[in-house]
Design goal:
With about 500 residues, the protein is an alpha/beta fold. It has 16 helices and 13 strands. A hairpin with a 5-residue loop joins strand 1 and strand 2. Helix 2 crosses helix 3, helix 12 packs parallel to helix 16 and helix 13 runs antiparallel to helix 16. It is a multi-pass membrane protein.
């Protein structure tokens, strides 16, 4: 087995070992409920405040020869999205993914979150030494997606509260949920926007950067052993991003959770917060190993990081534009994804990673997860209650729309009533009544086309497993809340 390579944080504290298993002390707790009515807080080096939660056993993720494909052999359109990836995520450590758009960062996140759809996975992807339970894996995983999908009429506090109602564990009291919401708003700096609506392109609300923080907070309302952040810095300035990643770093180290983050051109201060680096290109691995060994690895291949240059840009551009970092004359020694991927597979670092994956398989008994629990922490009846209340709030959140709908229904009812007034009881009257029913149904159906765009947040919540999936939830949860108004149209006619 390869000798261990010890990673050290800037303060010299031993963070993680490159080689060697991870064992959990017997007193580690996996109880993610809030045990105190007055939660304790910890002030980070960035000056932000985060909650102090019990240290958990974490999530040890190992991926061996992980490959993701789409298409079918029958149609001869099989394509590899990810190809032969080998990496690990250890409790208490953070991994940074860098690469140009389309390199496969989101695909890795989906695979780790067990949210693949038409994609097929091959190879080994183990969580704590075993296959994940697709029904309960979302309870152990925080997955922040790139897009911001929220219900515009709700305030920031109401958005967090709904997430707490759906995702916090069984037995959590209302007081604890409210405290959790306040804690998350304090951590993300959204206290002053607590009563401001989220908004969208038609309804003015919080800014784009604040909306991204809401997206992050919706997931961080629940405590989990695995944190997945897919380009969470989109819309945020460099200072806010640094504070955010610093807070997450504190959570990862103090609560012993695993974390993987994909970013676009982060600053050098942010890069130093990560323990491991993953460089992707066209779904293949150009590098995975300790962050403090990344520059030396590429310099051994013949490339040079310029002085006062951002290391993140160096890692992100080295595969696509290697000539920018080759100081000698002639062609660079490596060019293109295939050559960089093959060079990494032949490297000593890759061999150590593979040895670690093969020789240090986690023991599932050393870790605790939610595989033995129910799919959702709340019952179906509770979900129906909360989503019905949410739908009603959305219905009455814009009284102008409600009044316009009522007036339009009354006007259309008077028009139709005058046209079909005093129908006879013969065959011609029957045909006229059939025409009236057809026209009324047509009016209701075409009036509901505007509700289709409101389905987008529903699908986002469904993939995030906030509540049970089903057509009933579409009607109840309010993602098609305009459908309720269509009943007014029917009554008016």
């Amino acid at each position: 087995m390869a000798p261990p390579i010890t990673l050290e944080h800037e303060d010299g504290v031993d963070m993680t070992e490159f080689s060697g298993g991870t064992s959990s002390p017997p007193d580690i707790q996996n109880d993610i409920s809030l045990s105190s009515s007055s939660p304790a807080y910890h002030t980070t080096t960035a000056g932000s405040v985060i909650p102090i939660a019990p240290r958990r056993s974490g999530m040890y993720v190992t991926a061996r020869n992980l490959t993701m494909t789409v298409g079918t052999e029958k149609k001869n359109n099989v394509k590899n999205i990810l190809s032969d990836l080998n990496f690990f995520l250890k409790p208490g450590s953070m991994v940074l993914i860098l690469g140009s758009p389309g390199c496969g960062k989101t695909s890795i996140m989906k695979a780790l979150a067990c949210q693949t759809h038409d994609e097929r996975l091959s190879g080994k992807l183990l969580f704590n030494g075993k296959e994940p339970n697709p029904d309960t894996h979302h309870r152990d995983c925080i997955y922040v997606v790139q897009e911001d999908h929220h219900m515009a009429p709700f305030t920031v506090k109401e958005t967090f509260k709904f997430s707490a109602d759906m995702q916090m564990p069984e037995g959590t009291t209302e007081e604890q949920k409210n405290q959790r919401v306040e804690t998350i708003m304090k951590m993300l700096g959204l206290e002053s926007q607590a009563d401001t609506i989220v908004g969208n392109e038609f309804l003015r609300g919080i800014s784009g950067g604040q909306k991204k923080r809401v997206t992050i907070g919706v997931e961080f309302v629940k405590d989990a052993n695995l944190i997945l952040l897919d380009e969470c810095s989109t819309g945020l300035d460099s200072t806010t991003t640094l504070d955010l990643i610093t807070n997450i770093k504190e959570i990862v180290t103090t609560q012993n959770v695993s974390c993987i983050v994909s970013l676009l051109q982060p600053g050098s201060e942010i890069v130093r917060l990560f323990d491991f680096l993953m460089v992707l290109s066209e779904g293949q691995m150009a590098y995975f190993g300790p962050m403090n060994s990344g520059i030396d690895y590429f310099e051994e291949l013949g490339f040079k990081l310029p002085s006062h240059h951002n290391p993140a840009e160096f890692f992100q551009e080295i595969v696509d534009e290697p000539e920018l970092y080759y100081a000698k004359e002639g062609e660079p020694p490596l060019k293109g994804t295939q050559q960089f991927a093959q060079a990494y597979k032949n490297s000593e670092i890759c061999k150590k990673v593979c040895d670690d994956l093969d020789n240090n398989i986690p023991n599932p008994s050393d870790f605790k997860d939610s595989s033995h629990m129910t799919a959702y922490p709340t019952s179906t009846g509770y979900q129906i209650l909360k989503t019905s209340l949410r739908a009603f709030k959305m219905l009455v959140s814009n009284p102008v729309v409600v009044r316009v709908r009522i007036i339009k229904s009354i006007v259309m009812g008077l028009i139709l009533g005058s046209l079909f007034w005093d129908l006879s009881a013969d065959q011609a009257g029957g045909n006229n009544r059939s025409g009236l029913i057809f026209f009324s149904l047509l009016f209701v159906i075409f009036g509901g086309f505007g509700s289709i765009t409101v389905l987008t947040p529903y699908f986002a919540l469904r993939d995030g497993h906030l509540f049970s999936v089903g057509l009933l939830d579409v009607w109840i949860a309010g993602e098609c809340w305009k459908i309720h108004l269509l009943y007014l149209d029917g009554l008016g006619e």
